[in-house]
Amino acid sequence: MNEIFLIGLGNPGKKYSKSRHNIGFLLLENLSKKYNSKFLLKDKLKSSFSEFQLNNSIFRLFLPNTFMNNSGYAVRAIVDWYKIDLDQIFIIVDDKDLPLGKIRFRRKGSSGGHNGLKSIIEQMHTENFKRIRIGIGSPPLIKEKDNFNTISHVLGNISPEEKSILDKVYRRVIESLEQLNIKKEDYIINELNSFDKDQL
Fold first, then answer.
1. What is the number of domains present in the chain?
2. Burial of 141 (0-12, 13-18, 19+ CB in 10 A)
3. What's the pTM value of the predicted model, to 2 decimals?
4. Which residues are catalytic, by number?
5. Beta-bridge partner residues of 93
């Protein structure tokens, strides 16, 4: 049976549970809930873990408990425990450089300044892993300082207006992930990268 490993990036704890930086967590929590699969803490994987079967595949979902800046330690633990190739892993992550609701699926690339991706690259010694980036938009301009308050933006809570958009994004990404063992990956990449939140 085919195994699909989905790792959402975020910070553990109630304090961060609704923050923009936790979109990776939120998406996988939605997916897990859809299949009535609960997350359980697995210390050996440095993550909370959930799994279910669909379309002759086992979907394994992970929410690292290492905090965002050390995400690579959890990815390393998962890869070593399951003895898998990085090609089987999909990282789901927020991206402040993408407009709110935009999706970008890439097979490789730099961290783009994202500390979670940076940690994975450092621990795995490669940029060659698949990532699904979900736009949260740029932080608002602070007039007095004339710069961007990035930290408070990414760690700030998702507003009701943003949530209504992101709920559409979650559904679109989940629908595509569910097809991973049915459709060609190139088709799914094009499907997600051409997603327009305003067409729903």
1. 1
2. exposed
3. 0.94
4. 21
5. 133
